[in-house]
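Ticket #4471: complex job returned nothing on first submit. Input attached below:
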Amino acid sequence: MGEVREENERLKVMLEQIEKDYHSLQLRFFDIIKQETPKKSTESSVDHPLHDETEEPDQLVSLCLGRSPSEPKKEEKATSNPSNSKTTDYEEWKASLTLGLDSKFQLSTELVSDASPETSLEESKQAAETWPPSKTLKTVRNGDDEVSQQTHVKRARVSVRARCDTPTMNDGCQWRKYGQKIAKGNPCPRAYYRCTVAPECPVRKQVQRCSEDMSILITTYEGTHNHPLPVSATAMASTTSAAASMLLSGSSMSHPGLGPTPIATAAPVLNGLNFNILDNSKAKQFYLPNSSSPAPLFPTVTLDLTTSPFSSSTLFNRLPSSFASNPRFPSRSLSFSSSESNIIPTTWGTGYPSYSAVPYNKTHTGSINLGKQSQEHFYQSYLEKTHQASSQQSLTESLTKAIATDPNFRSAIAATISSIVGGGAPHDNQGGGEPIQAVSPDSLTQKGKACASSFFNRFASSNSHTAGLMLLQPPLPLSISKSSSTSTSAIRDQMN
DNA sequence: CGCTTTTGACCTGCGC
DNA sequence: GCGCAGGTCAAAAGCG
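Support reply: We reran it on our side without changes. The output follows.
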């Protein structure tokens, strides 16, 4: 109890600091918005008329995992009165962690989008209870063909590619293997798992090694959990769920950013991570565990945790050429990658934030790239930390931990997907070149959190759309502060 | 003994 | 209609 009280006190202090930084960041953000307004009014009106929301924080689209879309306003209201919002925000933050899998938003994974929250909840149960796709189809076909088709079409999959030595990725959930098959075109067998946390949970996953690189494990998740999950499992689940939701909502609407071009690619390289988004609806980059399989029945979004940050532009070339285009379902791929699979994880594993100030540039083509100098700086920092690191974590473990421990990481992933789905790649040059200091107060068990946080903080700062998303989140255990040295040391003190 | 994994059989959808 | 491939089932085997 004593330890808990102590930790509670520490967290309170931390929270206060976070709130301060949060508000200063918000002020800074508004300043930037003001400065950028004249520029953007000309640019956006011509190229991206739908991005006007970046000028009006009130209208920012918020992807809040586990919360209803209306909540951001509440949060914003709360932030206007910092002294009173402490408890509220903290509770909301906690709620966002625990409610992640019950999110109304997530339900779109399985369902047609425009259902009211109440009905969507019910429908999600139905969808969950009628898991097996074939049975679902059968059942629904008795009623309405159109509905059945939609139900079928709307079942999204989220595929995660990651380097992993273990037979399966530890995502915090309990799985039971129920089958194994040799799939055509891949000598490695594909294993089928179902979630055993709850007896009737519809979630399944397929695990298969990549035939071209055996060190890469491809895990495909399907379905939505119908039960609460352990905290360690909410991360992957909500992230994949959000990705699937994004994909589905994206597949059912037209995007100014994605539509007219053969392929819309955003390839930000931040903190040595690739963040590639592919739109396969128009290009031959459909991304499947089984490279030679025909077009899949389900829309798939792939989170790629394997590729090199310096060759993001060649990511597509490295994809198996047999990925067929799929006219029926769009598929998107996100890449969180390392140049060497162990460098970043090792660094993340140190548990300390990256304090290096990294300027960034954002191109008008939707790519966000660190300057060469910054990349060198960053990787130098990585290498230094690599030497210091005692633990050798795999990329998968690190990312999983980062996702598991950092709600902001999840939000950022979702936000990024949202920014792509909602309006294409970022287009303005806001905030470019200005060093942003990202500081993440360490918590007791948050290995791997720091880099992820700073990574996404920088990303958030570089993308007004996403930045807005981040700002609308309740205060999170990280902060962005321009006056780096003071806040860094302050938080270090708090950590100690 | 209970749970998990293995593995061949079976079911279903799809293309020809 | 047939064959193929993906996915699932369920009995047997394995394991702690």
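Residues 132-134, 178-179, 181, 183-184, 190, 192, 204, 206, 290, 293-294, 297 of chain A lie near DNA strand C (CB under 10 Å from a C1'). Closing as resolved unless it happens again.
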